[in-house]
What does this fold into?
Amino acid sequence: MIEPVDAERSAASMWRRAAYCLALLLATALCYFLVHVPLQISDDVTNLIGAEANSVGEIIAGELSPGATYFRPMLTLAVNGAFEAGRAINSYFLAAKTIQIAQVVVLLLLVVRLLRVETARDFAAASVALLAVVGMHTFFFTVHELYPVNTYMTILVCCAVMLVLCDGKGSLWRDLAAAGVFAFAIFTIETGVLLWVIAIAGFATGFRGVSLRGVGGMTAVLVLFVVVKFALLSGEMPALDERSASFGFRSYGQQELVATFSDRRPLFYGANVVSSIVTVFAAEPRAGLWRFARAIVRGETVPAAMLLNVITSLASSLLLFWFVRARWTAWRRLAFERDDRIVLVFFAVVIANGCVSFPYTKDAIVSPAGLLFALALYPALRAALQRLDDEAPRRRAGVALACLLGLLSLGWTLRAAAVPAGLLYVANGYQLEWVHVDAWLVDQGLPPYSSGQRQVIARVGQEALAIDVPNWRLVGGWMRWAERLFDRP
Amino acid sequence: MGRAPVRPSLATVCVAMPPLVLAATTAVMLLATALGMRPLWPRTPLTPAEAIEIGDEAAFIRLVAAGADPNARSSVGPGLGRDSTRMRTPLEAAIIRGQERTLETVRKMGASISGDTGRDAVCLAYEETPDLIPVLVRYGAPFVEEDACRVRGAQARIAP
It folds into this structure.
């Protein structure tokens, strides 16, 4: 005879396996599309030919030279590793895509690991959270570009690893791993500092996987980073004229940006912080440009894709704030359950992520907050489902609320399903860039290339043009409506 | 928090249904892809002239690399530039598209721009995109006066 506890355990195991299967299925489908997206020229070629011409030591020494702004040795190692692997197998594309696929699969599996699925209700909420991870507008920019390793995706994986480390019983290996992962992340790109925020917020709310000792080790790494950044390097912030940006309802070119904001930097930086935070909750603005509000103010038609993104994100945010309200009394007593910790870590990360985006904001930079948003949606959705089951399963209001949650789920499903349309669009664009790569190289005005560098460019271009990418205007079937539902910024 | 009931509730079903439908559809599509079909990115095969006329130069390069003749006429289906199906060479399609860089791609991939082909191209450019005439001449097309084109009746040859 099967004991009830065994049956419960068996059911939990079944739902957990189902969630992992869903994650793998999603990852497989996503990777099918990703392997059809060529490497882009900008950044990618520059980094690859840099790796061809200089050793890791030389690049890092260059980063430490007087006047240098960034110190990203782990990024250098990753780029050079991808380059060497590509040279060894005579396919830079294959090397870069292998790393990318590994990152995507690991990320989605770690997300399921964090969700701790045990029941049918958990599975339902987890499936929406998984689709939200992929469908979140901030996620797209972590997969469509490679440099040839997408550093923002690296940070997403590191964030998920850090959460997994925090969520468990404390041990020495977790502390060491936390410090190691943090060092890797922050010396890859500056947004890696968010891992420290995750650990601090996690510890403050009761996660004990990474102990005070581990948090101390991470803080020591942070101090080292600050010393390198501000004592050894110039410590300067990115200048206003480094790139174009948006403010309010319009975009500004580099010179225009300097002319408009050089005397009002706090206003521009403040707007970037606000935009970075709001975009996580509302899928708008995008890279500082308030397109949705502009369309409303000007009486323009709001595209279906933009409407889908905004409604889904706002509805999810409402659910999240409902969860906060429901748990507020317990939070005031500092009584945090595991679900509370995830949500509180999200709020800490979204604020920190907004703050680090002050000089420049774009979707990819706030992708860690986007990932945490999807993770925080899980406990909120699960709590809402439980409340419905407990209080009003058959009442009309209960049925109506169930339908509303179903619509929210449908919204995230459509957003995730539309991602391939965006990938197809950029794949077409990258291929066209490669057709005219010679003109691009001349436009850049870079120093003449060595024969080795020219060989690298020719090989990457050859691989890019060989990919059978259908034209985005002629693609048929479900992609026709997916194209209309993908919100291209 | 309490345990969920054995049978999933209405709300749970409502929430799980869209992701499950997507998952099932995706699984079927991946299976079909493994069997050699292309349901994930369904597409209409392009001819070389069609690829050029819609500006998909990468597709044109792939077609030529796979053995297509860069000088041969091929059909341009309705909806791609014109209302009805027409027969065009990639060079003619590039002139109709009107972009110098597209013309350059066609030339690089082996399209002939000299002799009669070049004269016809210049005549077509008078009608479609006169800005491209100097480019065509630079690429080796013989210069033809507009009046001479009328005589040659090049436009009539590409009409349906």
DSSP finds nine helices and two strands in chain B.
